[in-house]
From TrEMBL:
<dbReference type="GO" id="GO:0004022">
    <property type="term" value="F:alcohol dehydrogenase (NAD+) activity"/>
</dbReference>
<dbReference type="GO" id="GO:0008270">
    <property type="term" value="F:zinc ion binding"/>
</dbReference>
<comment type="similarity">
    <text>Belongs to the zinc-containing alcohol dehydrogenase family. Class-III subfamily.</text>
</comment>
<dbReference type="GO" id="GO:0051903">
    <property type="term" value="F:S-(hydroxymethyl)glutathione dehydrogenase [NAD(P)+] activity"/>
</dbReference>
<keyword id="KW-0862">Zinc</keyword>
<keyword id="KW-0560">Oxidoreductase</keyword>
<keyword id="KW-0479">Metal-binding</keyword>
<feature type="domain" description="Enoyl reductase (ER)">
    <location>
        <begin position="15"/>
        <end position="373"/>
    </location>
</feature>
<keyword id="KW-0520">NAD</keyword>
<protein>
    <recommendedName>
        <fullName>S-(hydroxymethyl)glutathione dehydrogenase</fullName>
        <ecNumber>1.1.1.284</ecNumber>
    </recommendedName>
</protein>
<dbReference type="GO" id="GO:0046294">
    <property type="term" value="P:formaldehyde catabolic process"/>
</dbReference>
<dbReference type="GO" id="GO:0005829">
    <property type="term" value="C:cytosol"/>
</dbReference>
Length: 375
């Protein structure tokens, strides 16, 4: 039987810099290879605010934003076998087709199968499943979780046990997995190694959690907000530095002194290109690696003296922590259920969909780690 169009509430971004508008939209049935999900909960991530601000070169409007969502499969299109109606799922902005050059390389979690259409805000067949006020709305990051129902490609969704509630599993759709994976999968932090984490938000705290898991030595949290010290320590930081309170030396000099020559691993979790430079330069000569996680605005560029790299420091980055969502997310859920991965602790704020603009305002304030939106 052919599915029906569903009318439901969604937060529509009609234009850059405008508040989201919560209104009725139409969500068309899934086509072949697609899955329609009833989203129960979604987190709000800085990347949503980044794209809404108009600073994302790939940003286009009108669009349904949101990429940190979880819910239940409502219907599936022809040929879908990886999930079924009623499955509890997390949406994946980094899909995993298992057949493209990227997926088969064993070297990256990036998947090439639908990246081009995803970046244009349409489904893999080039069309949209969202309509409002007589217009097509664009999709976002292949997920568009700020809608009570969304349609995604079957490679952009993973089923997880319903034992984890959706207000927790949604956070595995971006922030927590990104930071934890950056430490454990991308950097592969070793026992006893010294780590500095720039930015103690959801992503940075998750890096710290991954560093603890891998038995790092010093875990130095660096944040301009002193209020983040207690948070960082709760997630395993052994030291805290506020770079605005150092006199007469740079943060990189300070970290090099603290660690007798530099950090083994550093992570940018701020999106600030000056911080990215400091993070690279705080690495130990000969082997220190700096991982860029933060997303910087259009036009921003990173720089350092090439000598930093000639003398053995390594600059790299990752999306979604380097985690393959369909293969590895269920394992993270198990870790959570076994008490080995903190998730609940990240939730500082909650709002209903009708107040989603409040969630965006909270995110800009220093005391919000994650706001979970109840759809
Ligand atoms: P957040 O705002 O919650 O945390 C950022 C922290 O950085 C804050 O505590 C802030 O006080 C601190 N900070 C700001 N400027 C600083 C500076 N100059 N020095 C030290 N600390 C500073 O954000 P978040 O949700 O944790 O996300 C962090 C970044 O990661 C964002 O840029 C986001 O877009 C990006 N991100 C990337 C990926 C990815 O896959 N690569 C995934 C999720 C988020
Ligand atoms: N569209 C932006 C880049 C945004 C970006 O880097 N997104 C990350 C995820 S951030 C999640 O909060 C990502 O997945 N990047 C890999 C990819 O393929 O997009 C721009 O600057 O153009
Ligand atoms: Zn995100």
């Amino acid at each position: 039987t052919v599915g029906q169009t569903i009318t439901c509430k969604a937060a529509v971004a009609w234009g850059a810099g405008e508040p989201l508008s919560v209104e009725d939209i139409e969500v068309l049935p899934p086509r072949a290879g697609e899955v329609r999900i009833q989203i129960h909960h979604t987190g709000v991530c800085h990347t949503d605010a980044y794209t809404l601000s108009g600073k994302d070169p790939e940003g286009a409007f009108p669009v349904v934003l949101g990429h940190e969502g979880a819910g239940v499969v409502e219907s599936v299109g022809e040929g879908v076998t990886s999930v079924k109606v009623g499955d509890y799922v997390v949406a994946l902005y980094t899909p995993e087709c298992r057949e493209c050059k990227f997926c088969k390389s064993g070297k990256t979690n990036l998947c090439g199968k639908i990246r081009a259409t995803q970046g244009k805000g349409v489904m893999p067949d080039g069309t949209s499943r969202f309509r409002a006020r007589g217009k097509d709305l664009l999709h976002f990051m292949g997920t568009s979780t700020f809608s009570q129902y969304t349609v995604v490609a079957d490679i952009s969704v993973v089923a997880v046990t319903p034992k984890i509630s959706t207000d927790r599993s949604c956070l595995l759709g971006c922030g927590i997995t990104t930071g934890y994976g950056a430490a454990v999968v991308t950097a592969k932090v070793e026992e006893g190694s010294n780590v500095a984490v720039f930015g103690a938000g959801c992503v940075g705290l998750s890096v710290m959690q991954g560093a603890v898991k891998n038995k790092a030595g010093m875990i130095i949290a660096v944040d301009v907000n002193d209020g983040k010290e207690a948070w960082a320590r709760k997630f395993g930081a052994t030291h805290f530095v506020n770079p605005t309170k150092l006199s007469g030396k740079t943060i990189q000099e300070h970290l090099i002194e603290m660690t007798d020559g530099g950090c083994d691993y550093t992570f940018d979790c701020t999106g600030n290109v000056g911080v990215m430079r400091a993070a690279l330069e705080a690495c130990h000569k000969g082997w220190g690696e700096s991982i860029v996680i933060g997303v910087a605005a259009a036009g921003q560029e990173i720089s350092t003296r090439p000598f930093q790299l000639v003398t053995g420091r390594v600059w790299k980055g990752c999306a979604f922590g380097g985690i393959k969502g369909r293969t590895q997310l269920p394992g993270l859920v198990d870790d959570y259920l076994n008490g080995e991965l903190k998730v609940d602790e990240f939730i500082t704020h909650r709002e209903p969909l009708s107040n989603i603009n409040t969630a965006f305002e909270q995110m800009k304030q220093g005391d919000c780690v994650r706001c979970v939106v109840d759809m």
